[in-house]
Design a protein that fits this description.
alpha+beta; 5 helices
Length: about 180
């Protein structure tokens, strides 16, 4: 699991704030603010492992279309975000390809869940080295399982809403049939 962050009290306070978040997007905004703002980071994207790919979920510093467009198949093991998710270790990207609009250099921090990688944070390093993100990576190890649970709850809510719509449609069809 790794060690606790040096500021354990701060990490536990952030964990409490994440657990009280009303949505996954709100929780991720709190994580980005709490774990990365002390480093002066203004741009970060959270991507979740879903359906065989890392998919953008929320971000600070990029617009919603850029977030939704971020999708990298887990089979692309060369990609820094996939490497971070699969190895569980932070990865520095200094490639020539942009990971996100306007971002060629990045620090990619894994966000572990209870059953392996939940996702990653793709961070604009703003001139910092990967080692400068060690405390943030340790904090993500603390809050990652809570993010995973929030994502599961949101998926269950979406699934239940879809099932309810299907039930209502089926009821309407049955009610429209003539009585025998």
């Amino acid at each position: 699991m790794g060690s606790l962050p040096p500021d354990t009290a701060g990490a536990l306070e952030l964990l409490d704030r994440v657990q009280r978040a009303g949505s996954l997007a709100d929780a991720l905004a709190r994580v980005i603010e709490g774990a990365l703002s002390p480093l002066g980071t203004e741009r970060a994207l959270a991507a979740q492992v879903r359906r065989g790919a890392l998919r953008g979920v929320a971000a600070t510093g990029w617009d919603d279309p850029a977030v939704r467009a971020f999708s990298v198949p887990l089979s692309a093991e060369f990609h820094p975000a996939v490497r971070a998710a699969l190895t569980g270790e932070p990865v520095a990207s200094g490639g020539q390809d942009e990971l996100l609009p306007g971002l060629a250099r990045a620090a990619v921090l894994p966000v572990p869940g209870t059953r392996g990688a939940w996702g990653v944070l793709v961070v604009d390093p703003a001139g910092r080295k990967l080692d400068d993100f060690a405390d943030a990576a340790a904090t993500l190890r603390v809050v990652g399982p809570a993010l995973e649970r929030l994502a599961e709850v949101e998926e269950l809510r979406r699934s239940a809403a879809g099932a309810e719509r299907q039930r209502q449609l089926l009821t309407a069809i049955v009610n429209a049939l003539p009585d025998p």
